[in-house]
Amino acid sequence: MVRAFVLLAPGGPAPCRVLYARTFGTPPGAGPGGPRQRLRRKEQLLVVARQVASQCQLLQASLGRPSSPQLPQLPDEPVSLQDAPGGVFQMSPGDPFPERVTVVWLSVLALAFALVCEPQENLSLAEITLRRLAPRLLLSLRLLGPGADVLLRPDAADGLLDRLLPHGQMLFLNERFLQAMDRELGLKVSR
Amino acid sequence: MSPCNDLVLSCDEIQDTKLLSLVSSVLLAQGSRGEVAAVGQRVVQGLERRLPEGQSARFLLPVLANVISLSPGSLTEEQTNVVSKKLADWLRYASIQQGMAQPSGGFFSSPRTKQPAPITEVDGAVATDFFTVLSVAQHYTQDQWLNVQAFSMLRNWLLCYGGKELDTLNPGASAGGDSSGTPLVPVPATPGRLLPPRERLRDKAFAYCQRLVEQSTRRPLKKEDGDLQKACLIEAVTIMDIICKQDSSYVCRAVSCLKILHSRICGDATYARALLPIAQLFLNHSKQAAVDSDAIYKHLFSDIPALLFHNPSLAFEFVQFCKDNSQLFTDSSSIFRQSFPNLFKFLAWNSPALISEFVDLLPFLLDPGTATEIFHLLLDLPCLTAALDIQLRAAALPVSEKAGADPAGKPATCLEAFHHPLYRSMFQYLLRSRAAPEDAPDSLVPLRQLLGSLAGSPRVVQCAETVPVLLELFFRVVAEFADGSLINQLVVLLLQRSDQLYDIPAFKEDVYRVLGSNLAMLCGLRPALVVELSTEILEFSGAVSNIQSKEAIFTHMAWAVGEFLSVSHDKRCTVEQITRFFETLEAVLFEITQLRPQASTPSCAPRAISVLMATLTKLAARSQDLIPRVSMFLSKMRTFVQSPAVTSVYCEEDLEEILIRATELMNLLKMPSVAQFVFTPPVASTRFQKEVNDSLPLALRMVTQLLEPAAGSMPV
């Protein structure tokens, strides 16, 4: 199961920002509920985001790419995920979640997407899920300028996650199933 | 939780499955066990009964999956039986014909009903067996969606509730985790008699996985389906492994199916990630099936890392596999342990992502047989990164260019050098797949120099940054098991290698720092080595250039000599030896404390001067004829410290510190017997005695106060 999904702006020189995050259920008995729990969850996701940002920057450096990628010239130009850098890393128990988690991430333009998964999760499927989430989420964001000034539509993001990652469950969808799902959602994803 | 009762959400009254799913996500976020259980009950209720028209169970399954992952004890055995039965049906009996398109209502919608077409495989062939996630259709029916959902949650369900005992207190631990040794008596499915729900689900799940294994090697029409095929394959093998753990009667079938699969995919690099769960299944069960799986492990550890080190996901999963099976590495002759050079290729290429994994893995790779080879490997890790880079680039060259190198001349670029006879064996050694301590070439120095042109590459620099961490860990682990001869060997190698490091300045600084402090640690573990390795140590300490270029190592070496070169640590320590060390170090100190430093005089850290003075004093305390020489030397320090040429090189506080130290040492030598006691305490085997040694500066100060009760502040 996926514990959380995070959409972040890695920054570069600027500090990284969490633009949108969604957790899928809270393990019971995790401590006092309410605002403290929510704050703790926010902090935990921020730690994940910072780690993703630093991994992303290090990978970009080792691939020899500039840290601030260029936006596509036309706003409707399909974003190519072919060479999108991505990776996997693990976070130990206690730092920041009580149990071990594996984070799978993908970087597109000036943004990064991350799935926080349970330890023995199918990482191939997680990567596929991210590669499907990314273009569909980008469709619902308006890129206002270079960098990560995006206009989020959280309802659209929520709706998308409810279909592609319902309750944190990753789905084994082949291309035809995905098309059927896009039809249901009313999305026109270029293929 | 909520401010007033009207705002309390409950899932009890909700009939609409989509709404139930949405409400559940709020309820499950509360972190309350009671809420989770309530949601679980409601969802199972929804699945049990026939749903109202238009509602689909499709939205309920993910909720259930989340419930069991958050709180596995939420369902009763009866409920899990109900769900297991449904899952088995959805997996096995989904419709094998394509769904109908929703009527579009356009001009051209015709009233005639078309025959539903059969589902196809990903390669376009018509499907001849039951529906799975790899079945293709234009439109899908509800039960086909349920098939997808059921498979997607199958692994977690089996882990939670598939085992032989349902322990509602702690189901995660017992279910499927411990039944590998005791085979279940399989309940044969006689015709007309259904298996119990759990066993039936296992049966259908296994058949599903076998079908997926067959489907996953077809050539897909759409390229993206290829990625899903691999993910399905990995999931199918993992589920088979779980089923085998829960019911060992499946082992034979699984093993024979996967042996065939392995032979089909082992040559295809795109299927490499699937080799890991296959190997895991064989590791878990091949003994029971009496099957020889060594070829599988050999291929996995010898070939895959060398070919695919640059694939970050494979690298991560491979290292995870090693960590999960760390007991494999305890047998030093096994293929797993012998392949450690291959494993380090993953780290060399993907350093930032894998460093913390390797910190966990390294202790399992270290033993007396591998320690020295791993020491060299760690110091050469950035070279390995550079060599891998060249290997990749050389492989990408067209064939015509590969043969272009002129064997007689010197290679102009690293790329040319890769095939050049001068360098080829060095490259081969660095890029070896197996441990080979005897095959080490005499020196990799030419290769390191050649690779110097890549020292600025970001990937190499990132790798270099991980080395000090691993070195520190290396010494900590080795200290626990090293015997005398290994410690001696390591010290000799340490001093040798300090000259032979890849030329990245920050890297060398950090490595010297780690090597220096660990040198002192090793000498502390085995003080006799100062006597046994006196030749090497004298050679190192006598080279004045070392004090400048490798200050950390030099300082710790000098300190160790002062600490441990005494009869109390090793009976073989003679007066001649003490004198020889004394003269060597005195010459160095003389060289660096000249009153008029010339351009060729090395400048060095004040700490080095202090340590040298202290060491000389300690040696003099043990061989008292040397005392006059030291005293005279120390008395000259005042002049040294005040000389104008020197004050321009060192800062004021440092010079004052040097002077204070020199004075204290001189005073101490005025009372030779006290000095002897202070500097040669009984061999410190207890912590208290070690603390006494560590507080030497304080002790010196106090003695000075006693001798010179003059103006000056009392020591704090």
Automatic annotation (TrEMBL), chain A:
<dbReference type="GO" id="GO:0005829">
    <property type="term" value="C:cytosol"/>
</dbReference>
<dbReference type="GO" id="GO:0016197">
    <property type="term" value="P:endosomal transport"/>
</dbReference>
<dbReference type="Pfam" id="PF15001">
    <property type="entry name" value="AP-5_subunit_s1"/>
</dbReference>
<protein>
    <submittedName>
        <fullName>Adaptor related protein complex 5 subunit sigma 1</fullName>
    </submittedName>
</protein>
<dbReference type="InterPro" id="IPR029392">
    <property type="entry name" value="AP-5_subunit_s1"/>
</dbReference>
<dbReference type="GO" id="GO:0000724">
    <property type="term" value="P:double-strand break repair via homologous recombination"/>
</dbReference>
<dbReference type="GO" id="GO:0005770">
    <property type="term" value="C:late endosome"/>
</dbReference>
<dbReference type="GO" id="GO:0005764">
    <property type="term" value="C:lysosome"/>
</dbReference>
<dbReference type="GO" id="GO:0030119">
    <property type="term" value="C:AP-type membrane coat adaptor complex"/>
</dbReference>
TrEMBL record, chain B:
<dbReference type="InterPro" id="IPR056857">
    <property type="entry name" value="TPR_AP5Z1_N"/>
</dbReference>
<dbReference type="InterPro" id="IPR028222">
    <property type="entry name" value="AP5Z1"/>
</dbReference>
<dbReference type="InterPro" id="IPR055450">
    <property type="entry name" value="AP5Z1_ARM"/>
</dbReference>
<dbReference type="Pfam" id="PF25154">
    <property type="entry name" value="TPR_AP5Z1_C"/>
</dbReference>
<dbReference type="Pfam" id="PF14764">
    <property type="entry name" value="SPG48"/>
</dbReference>
<feature type="domain" description="AP-5 complex subunit zeta-1 C-terminal TPR">
    <location>
        <begin position="357"/>
        <end position="706"/>
    </location>
</feature>
<feature type="domain" description="AP-5 complex subunit zeta-1 N-terminal TPR">
    <location>
        <begin position="1"/>
        <end position="180"/>
    </location>
</feature>
<protein>
    <submittedName>
        <fullName>Adaptor related protein complex 5 subunit zeta 1</fullName>
    </submittedName>
</protein>
<feature type="region of interest" description="Disordered">
    <location>
        <begin position="172"/>
        <end position="192"/>
    </location>
</feature>
<dbReference type="GO" id="GO:0044599">
    <property type="term" value="C:AP-5 adaptor complex"/>
</dbReference>
<dbReference type="InterPro" id="IPR056856">
    <property type="entry name" value="TPR_AP5Z1_C"/>
</dbReference>
<feature type="domain" description="AP-5 complex subunit zeta-1 ARM repeats">
    <location>
        <begin position="228"/>
        <end position="345"/>
    </location>
</feature>
<dbReference type="Pfam" id="PF25153">
    <property type="entry name" value="TPR_AP5Z1"/>
</dbReference>
